[in-house]
Write a structure and sequence with these properties.
Number of helices: 16
Largest sheet: 7 strands, mixed
Distance between the termini: 35 Å
Number of strands: 17
Structural class: alpha/beta
Radius of gyration: 30 Å
Helix content: 40-55%
Length: about 525
């Protein structure tokens, strides 16, 4: 029987191999998005299996499109998604930071430091780093529109549409401040981004008192495509012949019976359409139906003759947004068509875009006092995004969503910090000082490795901008050592400047969330010492 020590040695070697394999898989994902960091970051062209092309430099988008098989690489994909949900921005930073921390862990493991010790030490470092970020942050008032616009512009600067940030940033701020609830809660489902090809990004408009539908108005039988003083009804029942609940077959033996069946069908549909006309509706929105046709050619013909504009195929998920925007309530039964459930607008018109037709509703009137829909009316915004090609429009959509998330992050945690890696280098400096003064033994190594890992952000920013990374990071460390907390990498001027004066700011939540999530992910990867495959 071999000695015990030999067994543990083999076990140790196996767990070290597992950890190193996990770390190298996760680092490969981090290296993939590293070049996309910052305003001078490169874009990735992603070709999907079906041949569709996506061009993006949004970390979450790139990482989510990767087809990774290694379980630890998948953890980085989840990490990026978590940052996207929590803060909405900083998805590239969090993956790059995680990759740098993993590299530090690899070096510490090679020195023979135990994974549990590294893990505990990183946990302590993360708490200290959060305090450093909070100390250098500046509290702001949510009414301070200028600062919010600066934060939104900083977010948009790293995107393809950075040249249009002066137009889109104020739109993002206005959109979020409009949908904000009194308790400070922001639900981004109340901002609808509708995209259409044609024109440029400069033609983008913010619609606060109306809506845009990608569904076009029904043209069968020459229905109207422009209605003034519209009375809008939203129905959830079908304008088609009813079906029985159980499987049944009707046997028709001669044409008179056929005639009678068709007459009954026609009478039933005409009756429904007359009731809709009598209720005063002149614009009808019809929800898409799963069970049977929501509307038939015959009923469309009747509605067209009654000069009622029909927009069909409204998605079930859009009902809530439409109700809030237009002040109308969905009607599930023809008997419940009552005027207090309708929305009213000055104009409903169909417009042409190169991609197809869209329906624009403008001048929505506020529902009267005391009605059910008055309470939640008007807390929605529609952004009508235009662009010259589909790739540009898709990237503009993602970039605008990121800027909305940035404003939401400031509303959640009302503080901002300087951008340009000022926060990261301050963490590196303060943690290094803390390690020298308070840590002892192997703890010192862990803390200093954690601190040095944060230098990857300024280093990568400088590298992506074509600057000399080592001289820039050295200059940045000197600036912070002399007490200039807001000094950061200015990629436009190619030097180190005060980022607050340059109006480059970001929400505190984005930085704290990225740091905490990256540390958590590294600690989780560290805890894994074996991968066990099970058979189905």
């Amino acid at each position: 029987m071999p000695p015990k020590g030999n067994e543990t040695k083999q076990g140790n070697e196996k767990s070290i191999d597992t950890r190193l394999s996990n770390i190298s898989a996760a680092k490969a994902v981090a290296d993939c998005v590293r070049t996309s960091l910052g305003p001078r970051g490169m874009d990735k062209m992603i070709i999907e299996p079906k041949g569709e092309v996506v061009i993006s430099n949004d970390g979450a988008t790139i990482v989510s499109k990767l087809q990774v098989t290694h379980p630890c690489a998948k953890m980085l994909v989840e990490l990026s998604k978590a940052q996207d949900v929590e803060a909405g921005d900083g998805t590239t930073s969090v993956v790059v930071l995680c990759g740098a921390l993993l590299k530090a862990v690899e070096e510490l493991l090679m020195k023979g430091i135990h994974p549990t010790m590294i893990s505990e030490c990183f946990q302590e470092c993360a708490q200290h780093a959060e305090r450093v970020l909070e100390d250098m942050s500046v509290k702001i008032d949510i009414e301070d529109r200028e600062t919010l616009i600066k934060a939104a512009i900083t977010s948009l600067n790293s995107k393809v549409i950075s040249q249009n940030s002066d137009l889109l940033a104020p739109m993002a701020v206005d959109a979020v401040t409009r949908i904000m609830k009194p308790n400070g809660d922001v639900d981004l489902k109340d901002v609808r981004i509708v995209t259409a090809l044609g024109g440029t990004i400069d033609d983008t408009t913010l619609i606060t008192n109306g809506a845009v539908f990608k569904q076009k108005a029904s043209h069968s039988a020459g229905g109207p495509v422009r209605i003034q003083n519209a009375v809008i009804g939203l129905i959830q029942f079908q304008l088609s012949p009813p079906k029985t609940d159980m499987e049944s077959a009707v046997t028709i033996t001669d044409y008179t019976q056929m005639d009678r069946a068709l007459k009954e069908e026609r009478k039933y549909l005409l009756d429904l359409c007359k009731k809709i006309k009598d209720s005063g509706i002149n614009v009808l929105l019809i929800q898409k139906s799963v069970l049977r046709d929501a509307v038939t050619a015959q009923s469309l013909d009747f509605l067209a003759k009654m000069k009622i504009m029909v927009i069909k195929d409204i998605e079930r998920t859009d009902i809530d947004f439409i109700s809030k925007t237009l002040g109308c309530l969905p009607v599930a039964n023809i008997e419940n068509l009552k005027p207090e459930k309708f929305g009213r607008a000055d104009l409903v018109v169909e417009e042409s875009t190169p991609e197809g037709k869209v329906v624009k509703i403008s001048g929505v009137q506020t529902p009267p006092e005391g009605t059910l829909q008055r309470n939640f009316f008007g807390k929605t915004v529609t952004v009508f995004l235009r662009g010259s090609n589909s790739l540009m429009v898709a990237e503009a959509d993602r970039a605008f969503h990121d800027s909305l998330c940035v404003i939401r992050s400031i509303v959640k945690k009302r503080a901002i910090i300087a951008g340009g890696a000022a926060g990261e280098i301050e963490i590196a400096l303060q943690l290094g000082k803390f390690a020298r003064q308070h840590a002892e033994g192997a703890q010192t190594f862990c803390m200093r490795s954690f601190a040095d890992a944060f230098e990857v952000v300024p280093y990568t920013l400088a590298e992506n901008a074509g600057l000399q990374p080592i001289s820039i990071v050295t200059e940045l460390r000197n600036a912070h050592a002399t007490g200039k907390k807001n000094a950061g990498v200015n990629v436009r001027k190619g030097c180190v400047t005060d980022m607050v004066e340059e109006a480059v700011v970001q929400p505190l939540l984005v930085s704290t969330s990225a740091m905490k999530l990256a540390t958590e992910c590294v600690m989780m990867i560290l805890k894994i010492d074996d991968i066990i495959l099970t058979r189905a």
